[in-house]
Amino acid sequence: NAGVTQTPKFRVLKTGQSMTLLCAQDMNHEYMYWYRQDPGMGLRLIHYSVGEGTTAKGEVPDGYNVSRLKKQNFLLGLESAAPSQTSVYFCASSPVSGADGELFFGEGSRLTVL
Amino acid sequence: SQQGEEDPQALSIQEGENATMNCSYKTSINNLQWYRQNSGRGLVHLILIRSNEREKHSGRLRVTLDTSKKSSSLLITASRAADTASYFCATAYDYKLSFGAGTTVTVRA
Question: Which of A54, B36, B74, B99 is the most exposed place for a label (fewest CB within 10 A)?
Fold first, then answer.
């Protein structure tokens, strides 16, 4: 049982390049989330989805886009990477709203933008 | 913002001792959750306490919630080296969880 899988685990980009982070969950969860974690700042919510075909903005959405075309996948895109987007990105999923139950996290994707 | 704030930022204790960390938040919540993160890993859910609950236990973990003071505490009893990790409180509202910056706990052998 894989749970939540993130790919890639590590990536180095140059400023202005684009990339997509993939999150896949095999637990048939409705809700999915993308967070970024920076030193001393905890986790901040970027975007989230309450079901297939839906997306919504979180606390820090600027510079990111997301898509949830399939229930099991939640993609996070950076169209033009900036050094400020250097961070560790975590995907999470939950069977019910995060307001009602626990989140299941992936192992993280470490992104460095030069 | 709903974001919780943990206190202290860092804690170092001897194996066998208890570890206590606190979380304060700003507005109403549906529930409050605690997570653990080992170095270089993802977050793992520890315990959830609902807004109408005052105390909850899970193994060596004890969580309290005081909604009048907008605060929560996490107690880890009889700590072990394997408890070395960062601990985060997360406040739940709407569809989302908001996380604090965490408390880093080091358990010395």
Answer: A54
